[in-house]
Amino acid sequence: MPPKPHAPMTSAARVALCALVLVAAGAGPALADDGGGSARWTVAPLAGGGGRAVRDGRPSFYAEGGPGTVLRDTLAVTNPGPKPRTVTLRGADAANTGSGALSVTSAGKHPEDTGAWITFAKRRVEVPPRTRAEVPFTVTVPDTAVPGDHPGAIVASGGGRTVGVRVHLRVGGPSLSALTVERVKVDTGAKRISYDLVNRGNTVLTPKLAVHAKGVLGARLDRPARTLPVELLPGRRVSLTEPWPHPPALDAVDVELTATASGGARDTATASARFVPWGAVAGGGALLLAAAAGAVRLVRGRRRPEGPEPADEQEHGTRELAPVGAAVAGTGEEL
Fold first, then answer.
1. How far apart are CA 267 and CA 208, in angstroms?
2. What is the sign of the dihedral through the CA atoms of 104, 105, 108 and 114?
3. In tens digits, what is the pLDDT along the chain, a chain of 335 residues?
4. Based on C-alpha coordinates, what's the Rg of the chain?
5. What are the strands, taking DSSP E only, across 200-306?
6. Measured distance CA(27)–CA(34) in Å, rounded
7. How open is the CA angle 17-18-22, to the nearest 5 degrees?
8. What are the backbone angles phi and psi of residue 157, rounded to the nearest 5°?
9. Coil, helix or strand at residue 311
10. What whole-number distance in Å separates Cα of residue 191 and Cα of residue 90?
11. CA 63, 64, 70 angle in degrees (round to 5)?
C-alpha cells in the first residue's frame, strides 16, 4: 500500500521514527556472488508488515501528498552473505538521458527535487552477516513544491557496486498531461526518421507513436500507434529515431508523426522528403552525354571543308584551257 501523508513532525518524533531495525534475514534464494566470496546484498522496499520476503514485496516506493506534508516508508537492506556489509544511502533525482533512458543524479551532484527531500534514519548502514536492516526514511514535501509527478530514487553503494530503488512521488494539486513532437527530419541516406518528444506537462508519460507517410503514388508507410520504450519525465526532452528500412526509390513524400499519452496528451508534426536515385540519375546523364558527343562527331564527319582540287584534275583542266597556239610539250607542233 502507498504510504499515507502525515502532518509535519517535530525533531524528537523524527528521531523516534528513524530508529534502525535489524532482523534475521532467514533462508532465502541463492544470490550471485559479490566477487569476494559472499552473496550480493540487496535493497528493496520493506514488504507490508515485514512478514513476507522482500523479493515478494513492492518493486518501488509510491508516495503522494500535498505541499508541506511528510511521508514515511522503510527500506530493507539484506545481507545474505557470511561477512558484514557496509552500505551508504543517498537520495537522488530521476532524469531522462537524451535518448530516453532513465538516469539519476550522480553522487557528486546535489539533488534539487525529490532526492533532496529524502532523509534517512542512518545514511551509513552496517549490516551483519545473514541479516536484514530496516532503514526508515521520510520524504518532506516543501510548501513550494509544484503539483505533479516528482520521480526520484534511493541509491545504495557498497562493496564496489551501486544499486537503486525508484521513488514515485506525486505532489497533490492540478495535473496536466501535455506532449509535443518537434524537429522531425527524414534522413534518406540512413533510412530513418528522427524526432524529439517533449513533456510539456507535470505528469510522467509513456508515449505512443503512429507513423504515416504519403507520396505521389499513395501511402508509403503506415504504422499504427505503439507504445515507445520511454518513460518521459515532466519537462524533459528526448531525441528518438524511427527506422525506415525500405523507403521509396523515387518519390516526394510527406511524413506525419502522431504522439499520444494518457491524460489526453496528443500532438502531430510533419516533414517532407524527396527520394531520388542519384546513382541512376548520374549513370543516365553519362549515357546522354556520350550519345550527344557521338551525334556531334557524326555530323562533323559528313561536312567536308572546301579546298584545292586534286592534282590530276588541275593538270587536265590546264590542258583544256591552254591558249590557242601554245605548244604542247614534246610535240613541237602548233594547234
1. 11
2. negative
3. 444 444 444 433 343 333 344 444 443 433 444 555 457 899 999 986 544 444 557 899 999 999 999 999 999 999 999 999 999 999 999 999 998 999 999 998 999 999 999 999 999 999 999 999 999 999 999 999 999 999 999 999 999 999 999 999 999 999 999 999 999 999 998 999 999 999 999 999 999 999 999 999 899 999 999 999 999 999 999 999 999 999 998 999 999 999 999 999 999 999 999 998 855 444 444 444 544 445 445 545 555 555 554 444 444 443 433 333 333 333 333 32
4. 42
5. 208-215, 218-227, 237-243, 251-261, 265-275
6. 18
7. 115
8. -130, 140
9. helix
10. 44
11. 85
* Distance, C-alpha 99 to centroid of its chain: 3
Sign of the C-alpha dihedral computed for residues 7, 8, 11 and 15 taken in this order = positive
274: its cell numbers: 524527396
Cell of 180: 509535443
Tell me the sheet residues that pair with 102. 96
Separation CA 257–CA 266 (nearest Å): 11
One-character DSSP codes across 5-20: EEPPPPHHHHHHHT--
